[in-house]
Amino acid sequence: MPSKKVVVLTGAGISAESGLSTFRDSGGLWEGFDINEVASIDGWNRNPSKVLEFYNMRREQVSKVEPNSAHKALAELEKHFEVVIVTQNVDDLHERAGSKNIIHLHGELTKARSERNEYEITEIGYSPIKMGDYSKDGSQLRPAIVWFGEMVPMIEKAAMEVSQADILIVIGTSLLVYPAASLVHYSAKGIPKYIIDPNIPEVLGPENWSLINDTANSGVPKLVQELTT
Question: What CA–CA distance (Å, rounded) separates 154 from 104?
Fold first, then answer.
């Protein structure tokens, strides 16, 4: 088994390069939807039909795009290291590229959950969720997504993985969304740290980072080649 552990934090930037839009680039509107209305628990309580419509549309979008060279390069990295991907993205592009160990901080589009019980999960693939679709416990199915106003159940596991990393790579994230943005601070001092983004965030700590001012599609394969040769 590979001895060194590489932990990779990925954000919307890596998926955007496969053609998926990001709400932070659109003034809080996402395909015409107000993000506070469709990505918050309050929005769900007010208008669940609208929330389902939004996520059904997103699920359909994901079904039509493919993993890009950055996703594929990260999957290749597993041949050389123990790799853990911690992603803020809710799509399945890392899985489809072949990565095996993925922590989804904000949930997964291809799953639904009970309205009452976050642990009652149903695999739905790219199928829509409709009002009147029920979980095994008899409650309305909702997207298995962590919304604004909800706890992030995987954050502790992610922090533990980052704390054990021998190498940390950050790709396509503004490092502005908490608690995910706090994860970089759990990494050990002195380990190699890389950030790949065409717009490097200004919120990094005092430690030295290797800054790769590039797109994920271009920068990730280059870094993977550097780390494996």
Answer: 7
Q: How far apart are CA 158 and CA 102, in angstroms?
A: 10
Catalytic residue among 71, 104, 106, 185: 106
Which range (13-27, 30-44, 138-152, 175-189) has the least confidence?
Answer: 13-27
Average pLDDT, the chain: 91
**106 in catalytic set:** yes
